[in-house]
Write a structure and sequence with these properties.
200 residues, 80% helix, globular
């Protein structure tokens, strides 16, 4: 087992898995407590539209995917705050549109098309060193933000009305939490894929 760590790709895979488990553990707890599992699934699958945009227009993977995911996440967050009774329906539509857009754009991309399966199911053995540094930076950002606003996030997770009375900026923190969730999802897409990220 130890001999496997002689290979660089195995060391990268181990570090990627470790970073993913820490961040997904932090954000996953917030997702479960706030009962936004379906919303997180919507963001994860809508992110595929960002992947398609990135490859079609030749943008960097991270920029295209993160930008699209954040936009979709903010839209879903606004919907869940304003129209909770219709949120599941609209999130489901955004979920499907994101996936469809990604598939269409990747298919239309001239030249070599990337393997769709690597983004759906991840490829932990092919994580490059550059992505590990990005994952580390994003992981520190997410961990630091959650630690700094921990009490307020705890308050809005269990009783948002009481938190609002106490002067906690409920809407702002909710949008921030959903934004951090989108960043987390993009961070682990290459490691575990769009499908398994919901489980984490």
């Amino acid at each position: 087992m130890i001999e496997a760590l002689d290979y660089e790709f195995m060391r990268h895979a181990l570090l990627a898995g470790l970073l993913s488990s820490i961040i997904c553990g932090i954000m996953g707890s917030l997702v479960v407590v706030n009962r936004i599992v379906f919303l997180s699934g919507g963001i994860a699958h809508a992110a595929y539209g960002g992947i398609g945009l990135a490859f079609y227009f030749g943008w960097p993977f991270l920029a295209g995917t993160l930008g699209f995911s954040l936009a979709a996440a903010m839209l879903m967050a606004a919907i869940t705050l304003r129209a909770r009774h219709r949120a599941d329906t609209i999130i489901g539509v955004i979920w499907a549109l994101g996936m469809a857009l990604g598939v269409i754009l990747i298919d239309l991309t001239p030249g070599y098309n990337v393997d769709l399966m690597s983004y759906l199911f991840g490829s932990i053995l092919t994580v490059p060193a550059g992505d590990l540094w990005i994952m580390t930076a994003l992981g520190l950002l997410i961990s630091g933000a959650v630690a700094f606003y921990y009490k307020d996030l705890l308050a809005i997770s269990y009783d948002d009305e009481f938190a609002r009375i106490r002067g906690v900026p409920v809407k702002g923190l909710y949008f921030a939490m959903i934004g951090l969730l989108a960043v987390t999802i993009v961070m682990v897409i290459q490691v575990v894929g769009l499908i398994l990220v919901i489980a984490l």
